Amino acid sequence: MKLQLDKALSLVALGVLGVLNSAHAAPVYEIVNLDDYDLPLSDSFQGARNGYALGVNANDELVGIIKGKKKLSTSDVEGGVIDVEDGIAKEETITYSITSAIIANNFAFIAAQNGAYGAWKPTFDSINGTTPPSDTSIVNSVDTFYYGINDAGVKVGSMTAPEKKTENTATADVADDYWYYRDYEFRGVAKSGNIEIPLEPPFTKYVKDDKTVELGGWSAATAINNNNLVAGYASIDISKYGSDRVNYCLGTDNTLPLDICVQREQYPNSTGTRNIQYQTRGYVWQIENDVATGTELPLGLTPKADNTLTFTAQALGLNDNGVVVGRSHVYRNNDTDKLRQDAAYWSKDFEGNYQYHWIPMGDSISSSIAYDINDSGILVGSYRSYIQGYLRDKFFVFDTNTPEVAYVTPNDFGSTATDLSSKPKDINNKGQVVGYIETTYDKEKPRPKAGFLYEKSTGEFSNLNNLLTCESKGYEKGADGNWSRHKVEFTDGTGKLLTYNSDILVVEATSINEDGTIVGTAFIRKPSFQLDSKGNIIVGENGMPLFELSGNGNPVTAYVPRMVVLKPASSGEACTVVDENTDNSNYERQGAATLAWLFALPLVWFRRRIR
Question: pLDDT digits over 423-437, tens only?
């Protein structure tokens, strides 16, 4: 009864909040990259499954990540590559092993309004020698990522080192058996035109007595401003336990080659942690004449000389004035019993040195993080706290010009705060904030999410899906003037004509430029395909795939993440059509926080090994 009552109250609350929202004249948006969104065999992502847009500049150029490579090449099906419904088939696992070849699963891409291959067409961009995921003649071992782009078109992100291999001497009578390793797990990179600029961490080698071990360290670039200042984080030392593991590799008990033993210790284990971890700090790199000069940002505390804990900090955003935001370990109010990871910002003092600034958090807040800051010094972030007995993330705004004034938690959909989790990802100089927010009030189930737009000047908070034109939500107008879902028709591998209703849901907004162009991720409804025991798509005699069918013979569909570009509409109005079926259960498997691993330490770059 309690759950039913919660749902009933949720419906009432949503109705009230909808009325409150309607008091403001919100902008109308249209999705401008829907050229082939509803094609079951769309080749939008060039041989990969999922795509996420992460940053856009003032010139309508964006960067993002393609995730998940297909097993069916473009030559197998006429018209393009097949989109598997959730990125990783059940028969596939992500494994990390020194005896397995490294297969990349992440690829950086670019797109632009005036792109060379068409407006907003996702275009593979090579880093560190990678080749397009659609090229099945080469197996990539380098994972690449783009997180930001400035107005000059300089892109920043990270990359892994290419695979190396050496003969596996532990296995007898197998001539082609190898150990696999690489020089570093991930490293920051900037790309200006065709020039790649590595953003190296200060700590890459472990030295003990007369022995030096090349570990590689780690670094990542998360944002770049228009003065070519790059924010990110980097290793400055190794953790205590990490040094113990390297010493084991150097010792007589180790029977593996040194490089292979070190690689095994650097891989994440079944719990997602690594034996070799690093003391990690927020970092900035200034790029001049295609050369990067790095500067460490101070930690939020000063560890004692004998302290063996691993302390971390990350820089995640910055403005054109060089103020950097992110998070850092800190002893709240200098109380060593209150070690937390909290939102922070770094700004230069009169001598030109970066100083750490804590954003004060109360005892009820377990952690916090800052994502971005605009040129006026308005910072956006989120904190984690218990609300009505559940841990939730809440979006906050903080003015660095008045640090003595506490942060503000905007009311998301009405005049009072709710328990909906929300996270901002970007703020422009007009005070417009984008991110994602939960959309239902269920207590015991995963909640679907939607991209949001917040106008600081008015306090207006909008679900982006409620600002879209009907066409941008998958509707079309009939001859009678009424709107209905666009029906996608296709012929499957048995020759049967099947149909399903199109659907588009913006689940996360990650970046907004000064003109109001928003990029992020939408779930596009796509059909699911039958797979064999090895995870390969089953193709019929006509060369087309076999679709999964429900008990009544209709195609089974699911949401697939796709890059999305939203622009303020020059005409038209926000869609008011209400679907009869509002079940959003398919959201649960995908989630909107797809990119949460960007802010996790240690970072685990997903690679897929096909068994």
Answer: 999 999 999 999 999
